[in-house]
Amino acid sequence: MISPKTSMISANYERRVNIRQLEAFRALMIVGTAKGAAKLLGISQPAISKLIEQSEKNLKLTLFDRSRGRLTPTPEARLLFDEVERAFLALNKVHEIASDIKVANAGSLTIAVLPALGLGLIPKAVARFHLVHIATRISVSIQTSAKIEEWAATQQIDFGIAEFPFARLGLDHEDFCRVEYVLGVPASHPLAKRRVVKPEDLANSPFISLTSSTVGRHMIDQVFVRAGVERNMVLEAQFAAVVASMIAEGLGIGLIDPFTAAEFRDKGVVALRFEPRIEFHVGILHPTHRPMSRVAREFLTVLRACRNELQKEFRLESAIGV
To answer: Residue 210 is part of a domain; what is its CATH number?
Structure first.
């Protein structure tokens, strides 16, 4: 929920600050240095500094602290940045629609997906879709499930794929898959030849965990708490692909989703069935009051076909979606 203070600042920004100043502010927040922002926008560093100073003067706000010889964002700047980013996403969508009209509705698709699917399954689906729809422009953002839910509810994307549960109003959802987390171990690990593993089998092995900001981490923790097993937690990462990469390096073992496991099966990571079952439940989200476009529906058809092929190849014992 946007606070009254944020809304007031955003409104002032829209009235008093021109688009070039918005671009300078956004570039500086993204890159972190005036030199980098200048390179990003193709202008001089003094020009960036001048645009930022004009913004602060017009708003009567200090957006950057200069006390240490560099531009450090103030809390007000960080508060404002989220609103500015939403504005640019909306503006980009307008440009996409206008371009579609100009080229006789070639079509465009803006989606956001969680890393488990965005780093492997989605690129495969995009490649297959592109063979038939070569004129369609596709924008893919890799985001957390919470951010994807927010973007879908505020109509910033055509659809998103994120992990349940969902709480926001303004969006519809449907199942994409309900599968099981698997235990990833290095090929040389003593457990690698086991068919099924349980919490007590992991007590003595270095464990690589998802971070507490993920849905999966909380579900996995509950299983070990109920089993009364304390893990040797040595490393953690926000994305399952990073967990899998560390497993491949022999740093430990960890629970990962089967999509990630499939991507790492040729990189020395063995996937084992884990009991009790921990569900990886993923859904397709889209804005309630904006019908899904033909392009989006056709892409989802391709994506589901890729998902079903992965089910067959990886021999997942749980059904993947419908």
So the answer is: 3.40.190.10
